[in-house]
Amino acid sequence: MGNKIVYVKELAPLTKLFEIEVAHIAERGKAGQFIILRVNDEGERIPLTIANRNPAKGTITLVFQEVGKTTEMLGLLDVGDEIHDLAGPLGKATEIPSGKTVVCVGGGIGNAVVWPQVQALKAAGNKVIAILGARTKELLILEEEITALADVTIITTDDGSYGRKGMVTHALVDLIEEGEKIDEVITIGPVVMMKFVCKATEPYGIPTQASLNPLMVDGTGMCGACRVTVDGKTRFACVEGPEFNGHLVDFDELITRLAYYQPEEKSSLEAYHRCHMDETTDNPEHGE
Amino acid sequence: MNDTPKKPKKVLNKSKVKIPMREQDPKNRIMNFDEVPLGYNADEAHQEALRCIDCKNKPCVAGCPVGIDIPAFLTLVGQKDFEGALKKIKEKNFLPAICGRVCPQEDQCEMVCTLNKPNKGREPGGIGRVERFLGDYAVEHNLDIMPDIAPPTGKTVAVIGSGPAGLTAASDMIQKGHDVTVFEALHKPGGVLFYGIPQFRLPKEILLREISGLEKMGVKFVMNYPVGKAESLDSIRERFDVVFIATGAGLPWFLGIPGENLNGVYSANEFLTRVNLMGGYKFPDGSDTPVKKIKRIAVIGAGNTAMDSARTAKRLRPEVVYLVYRRSRLEMPARVEEIHHAEQEGIDFNLLHSPIEIIDDGKGAVGAILCQEMELGEPDDSGRRRPVPIEGKVREFAVDTVVIAIGQGPNPLLSADCPELERDDRKGTIVINDLMQTSFENVFAGGDIVTGGATVILAMGQGRVAADAMHRYLMTGDPSDPEGEHI
Ligand SMILES: Cc1cc2nc3c(=O)[nH]c(=O)nc-3n(C[C@H](O)[C@H](O)[C@H](O)COP(=O)(O)OP(=O)(O)OC[C@H]3O[C@@H](n4cnc5c(N)ncnc54)[C@H](O)[C@@H]3O)c2cc1C
Ligand SMILES: Cc1cc2nc3c(=O)[nH]c(=O)nc-3n(C[C@H](O)[C@H](O)[C@H](O)COP(=O)(O)OP(=O)(O)OC[C@H]3O[C@@H](n4cnc5c(N)ncnc54)[C@H](O)[C@@H]3O)c2cc1C
Ligand code: SF4
Ligand code: SF4
Ligand code: FES
């Protein structure tokens, strides 16, 4: 198996950071790419972004939020455990310009994806402004890491518990209106947020890349589960993306497609919770 | 020409038809994912083998893409020497339990069999069925028939893709004494045999057993390793003396009609992968990959993939499974046996219907599929009568799920990462010469990635041809040098 977890840190409630030994991905992964993993032999394949990597140590970093059965089971693993299956790096790497001013707009768990982008953009000699959003202060992740790299970091929280009160889009529009010359915007976060970021930059004609997160199965271009509509054409996000020109993405379709299995995912999680309770009462019928 | 032998050898079983194979009853089998045909027992296999008249020209041998000595193994079965028969098959085909199940025998070995005289009501020798029996016999009796392995040559071989083409090349190359590593993008080996062909047609246990046989012979498997992503082809080329690309035809085609991205529209690959590879039919107990509760489903297409999708859907117990195909029965590309099974299981065939639009249920999911009714017009260049629309006749099928099973193109994952590798721009297939060599000297390719979607046994045949060429290349530097054979 390999894929040994060597470091675990809780970044926020239900949000964990894992450092994992997978030398070939540490070596070749690039900003914008992701991996697909399975927690056990009955497990679902889920995509997670490569949030950081250390080629010298042969490790990659994943940051994930526990939202369903698979991510919850992943959260139960600890240092020394191995991840059953882990494939990557998948998807296309972000196209990194040089000598430009780039604004990275992250929201929620999306900040984990912004982190490698900021690293790569800085390494290529760009001016980077990071706008990091969260619902509330305790859910904000990777602030320190990103602030240390970016030229300017702006924090927003929906409830005003930290940084600016309000949405990332407000901070972005203010920046534009203040006359900051922005060459490009990269946005990663909840689909609705990305949709509004793209809407905000469109009138100003600022090229905007959105990192899409459709449901995926194989992640190798074999199934088409990840199809998204960009400029009226169907694209497979796992091989042709996950980043696309945000002004041409059909976000509403993506939102609808993401919701399709919600009832099933919910029942699976509930069954898992029930089963877990049985386990503690040592019911042999629910041994698995 | 009358190819019936003038003086036939002593015919031991004069039955005109094959010994029937027991099957699960259609009423029961649509409630489970267990295998449908139950296979011959020793007695039935013996009786069937005795039907072969060991005719003079043995056309069956040339009809088999890997050239199994069919009369020889049938004769041995006729003498109840099952182990000997199995050895005979394994000289040419190391996956009898699989080929016996999934080969389109009726178009290959059995089609050309001398006995095959449909107009006289005579059926060919049941070659596939006996072959399957032998494959299963080996499992039941724990006969690990290990081929001889040549002394190590010190040469290394990388095989990319673990479908039938890759597995065959790996088996041949390890037998020739080379050090073989197979790289597979997914978490399970077998290619379409694992993720595509359903459990009820090819039980996974059989496949995994055959693959563990390869491991015992010393083949190394690296899963979760999409070459071109995990490592570049260039790097693999440097690390290994020779490379075989067998990445298959995994790119699903869609129809290009409105509504195709609605929820509930799947490619056959996604549908079958969810159910087979990920075990979605066991969701939520036993698998975490969800499959929707389907009420009414339409499967588009009429090949093996469409039959597999329709029959898989049926086992998820919907109210109705429609099969929608734009041509007529004559053109259906699926195996006859599969069409027959699908009919027995109550799949509702709608031929000469061409999908034109998938209609939204108002919530972003499939509500119905609209089809143009067709009729057969004038024959086209291929001599087939072309379907043409019947003016004004459209039909709506109320469904909540649509599976598109109209074929697959070559998997682009590897070639996208290596533009220097020569490809057919139109088809996307990798270009090879008649020795299966690509535009890179030490890289060979075979199977669906060079032919486009074909068959298991053709992919295996190509794996074998490539292995021979790669061996000659490794030993002499020239894939066509016959000297290489003897080293
Ligand atoms: C390219 C890519 C990169 C990603 N990177 C990260 C990452 O770095 N960190 C991280 O925490 N998550 C990331 N995700 C999302 C992650 O894959 C999902 O959260 C995960 O699959 C949920 O699995 P589950 O079984 O735990 O939850 P499920 O039971 O499958 O789902 C629980 C809930 O989450 C929703 N959901 C499921 N999949 C997604 C998805 N792809 N996007 C948004 N919502 C979803 C479901 O609708 C449901 O409401 C990424 C997704 C993609 C496509
Ligand atoms: C549903 C279905 C039913 C079928 N039924 C029949 C039948 O009954 N009889 C019959 O004869 N034929 C049938 N076929 C066709 C037959 O399965 C194929 O022709 C055959 O499997 C092709 O073999 P292959 O080895 O070329 O490729 P595949 O079987 O497609 O295997 C290719 C493998 O390569 C892997 N791969 C791809 N890219 C990479 C990469 N970059 N790095 C590493 N690995 C990679 C894939 O994940 C896959 O495992 C069917 C096909 C389908 C889809
Ligand atoms: S491998 Fe296929 S074609 Fe060859 S003998 Fe067996 S069933 Fe016939
Ligand atoms: S199987 Fe048919 S073709 Fe082959 S040797 Fe026997 S009779 Fe002849
Ligand atoms: S996830 Fe299957 S094609 Fe993209």
How widely separated are the two ends of chain A?
Answer: 21 Å
* CATH level 1 class label of the largest domain in chain B: Alpha Beta
- CATH top level assignment of the largest domain in chain A: Alpha Beta
Helix content of chain A: 25-40%
Alpha carbon gyration radius of chain B: 23 Å
Terminal CA distance of chain B reads 43 Å
The percentage of residues in β strands of chain A lies in: 25-35%
Strand order of the largest sheet of chain A: 11-10-9-8-12-13-16
Query: What is the CATH-assigned architecture of the largest domain in chain B?
Result: 3-Layer(bba) Sandwich
Plain-language structure description:
The complex is a heterodimer of chains A (288) and B (487). Chain A is an alpha/beta fold and 288 residues long. Chain A folds into 3 domains: 5-90, Elongation Factor Tu (Ef-tu), domain 3 (Beta Barrel); 94-211, Rossmann fold (3-Layer(aba) Sandwich), CATH 3.40.50.80; 213-283, no CATH class. In chain A, 30% of the residues lie in helices and 29% in strands. In chain A, strands 11-10-9-8-12-13-16 form a 7-stranded mixed β-sheet, sandwiched between helices. Chain A has a 4-stranded antiparallel β-sheet with strand order 1-2-6-5. In chain A, helix 3 runs parallel beside helix 4, helix 5 packs parallel to helix 6 and helix 6 packs antiparallel against helix 8. The longest helix of chain A is centred in the last third of the chain and has 19 residues, at 262-280. The radius of gyration of chain A is 19 Å and the shape is globular. The two termini of chain A are 21 Å apart. Mean pLDDT of chain A is 89; it is low at 279-288. Chain B folds into 3 domains: 22-140, Fumarate Reductase Iron-sulfur Protein, Chain B, domain 2 (Orthogonal Bundle); 156-250 and 409-486, FAD/NAD(P)-binding domain, CATH 3.50.50.60; 254-406, FAD/NAD(P)-binding domain. Chain B contains 17 helices and 15 strands. The longest helix of chain B has 21 residues, at 456-476. Chain B starts with 25 loop residues before the first helix and ends in an 11-residue tail after the last helix. Chains A and B meet through helix 1, strand 7, helix 8 and helix 9 of A and strand 5 and helix 12 of B. The structure holds flavin-adenine dinucleotide (2 copies), iron/sulfur cluster (2 copies) and FE2/S2 (inorganic) cluster. One flavin-adenine dinucleotide is lined by residues 34, 44, 46-49, 63-65, 67-71, 109, 112-113, 213-216, 242, 258-259, 262, 265, 269 of chain A.
